[in-house]
Amino acid sequence: MYQKKKEKLYITDLVEDPAYAYPAYYTLSSSLAKNEMLHSALIALHSYDFRFYAHPKSFDALFETLESGAFAIYKEKYIVGFFGGKMMYLESHGWKAMPATREVFDLGQWLTA
């Protein structure tokens, strides 16, 4: 079976002096490593510059953001995307399934652009 090539996207390539330096890199597919919307979300997260983000007014607004191909920020700690009908959050080694705990349903935990 053919394995898609993964790339490491280093935070220091996006943000010169990150306020939040962990993780130092993310392992992504080639197409996501070049995705400008993901880059802007990562820059916002790692520089703590959320001026273009706001708490969504409803879950419809949150899912509109995710379904448009943009990325949300959860708890000012994780980048969240929507792939194949599933919410996924980004860790250094790639995308992980988002656990559906009570905290996920608190709109105050989310930021959307």
Describe this structure in words.
It contains four helices and seven strands; from the N terminus they run βαβαααβββββ. The protein is α+β, with helices and mostly antiparallel strands and 113 residues long. Helix content is 26%, strand content 27%. The chain has one domain (6-111). The model has no long low-confidence stretch (mean pLDDT 90). A hairpin with a 2-residue loop joins strand 4 and strand 5 (86-91). The N and C termini lie far apart (37 Å). It has helices spanning 11-14, 30-33, 36-47, 59-67, and strands at residues 6-10, 25-29, 72-74, 78-83, 86-91, 94-97, 110-111. The chain is globular, with a radius of gyration of 14 Å. The strands form two sheets. Strands 6-5-4-3-7 form a five-stranded antiparallel sheet.
The whole-angstrom Rg is: 14 Å
Structural class of the helix and strand makeup?
alpha+beta
- Spatial separation of the terminal alpha carbons: 37 Å
- The string of secondary-structure elements, in order, is EHEHHHEEEEE
Question: So how many helices?
Answer: 4
The 3D shape can be described as: globular
Please, what is the average pLDDT?
A: 90
Beta-strand content estimate:
25-35%
- Our count of domains comes out at 1
* Strand order across the largest sheet: 6-5-4-3-7
Oligomeric status: single chain
Low-confidence stretches: none
Helix % is: 25-40%
Count the E strands.
7
